[in-house]
Design brief:
Shape: globular
Structural class: alpha+beta
CATH architecture of the largest domain: Roll
Number of domains: 2
Strand order of the largest sheet: 1-5-4-3-2
Radius of gyration: 18 Å
Distance between the termini: 29 Å
CATH class of the largest domain: Alpha Beta
Number of helices: 5
Number of strands: 10
Strand content: 35-45%
Length: about 250
């Protein structure tokens, strides 16, 4: 049986190869699209693929995971410019029926010399998936959303490896970033809602909504956990288009 991980890769690789068989991964009658700038259902997906095909696209899978009915990936795209993306699909009966994503233009190396995509890729500790999901979900709610940054040491390793393009390694830098304010006094980064937490082994993805630099955004955060602590962090931040610019009625989340 083809795994959901393999189905996700087949579908997205079709952007690069133009393989018409990639479309067979989608259940055309049930497909729900959550990228606000993409049209509804499989016609919207077909239109997107057709437009991207003109850019001589390249699709590179860096990390691919599977969690129950979901498969999710951490990718690099080149559509006449490099982007970093998280892609999430929900499957029913071996077909993709729902899709979310969060895509950001690839940024320069961060203050610690790390990119948005490098770092550990090995999926381990499959038996700790639920414990790691719980740990990260509590961190996301208590520290990110509720802004209880004094609790950060309960969840995050002192020598955190950081891939956020604006932040250096270490728990102190991460806490300072989360506590930073704009000139207006508002938080520079404000997490408002954790919509979904997906996990496989030592990796956990949080699909979050909030504001960064005052802009309403999707903020997807991938964490690697070891010995009951968050030890590595990747992210993408995507401004959410105003309602009047949406091409479907499903919303970002």
């Amino acid at each position: 049986m083809t795994s959901k991980r393999q189905l996700l890769q087949k579908l997205l690789k079709g952007i690069e190869t133009g393989d018409p068989d990639a479309a067979t991964v989608v259940n055309e009658g049930k497909y729900i699209q959550h990228n606000p700038r993409t049209g509804e259902g499989s016609p919207g997906l077909a239109d997107l693929f057709a437009r991207l095909a003109k850019t001589n696209p390249r699709v590179t899978f860096v990390r691919v995971f599977e969690d129950g009915d979901f498969a999710f990936a951490h990718n690099e795209y080149d559509f006449s410019g490099e982007d970093v993306a998280f892609e999430v699909f929900r499957f029913e009966s071996g077909k993709a029926v729902e899709h979310w994503d969060n895509i950001q233009v690839k940024q320069p190396l961060n203050p610690s010399g790390r990119s948005m995509l490098d770092g550990d890729t090995a999926i381990t500790d499959e038996d700790k998936t639920e414990a790691n999901r719980s740990l990260v979900a509590r961190f996301a709610q208590q520290v990110l959303v509720d802004r209880q940054t004094g609790l950060i040491e309960e969840f995050v390793a002192a020598e955190l490896i950081q891939h956020d393009p604006e932040t250096a390694d270490g728990i102190a830098a991460f806490r300072a970033f989360l506590e930073a304010k704009l000139t207006t006094g508002a938080p520079r980064v404000a997490y408002r809602h954790v919509h979904r937490v997906l996990a496989e082994g030592n990796f956990v993805l949080c699909m979050n909504e909030g504001e960064r630099n005052g802009i309403h955004s999707g903020m997807y955060d991938l964490f690697r956990v070891a010995d009951d602590k968050i030890v590595e962090h990747w992210t993408t931040v995507t401004a959410i288009a105003p309602r009047g610019e949406w091409n479907n009625e499903n919303g970002k989340f």
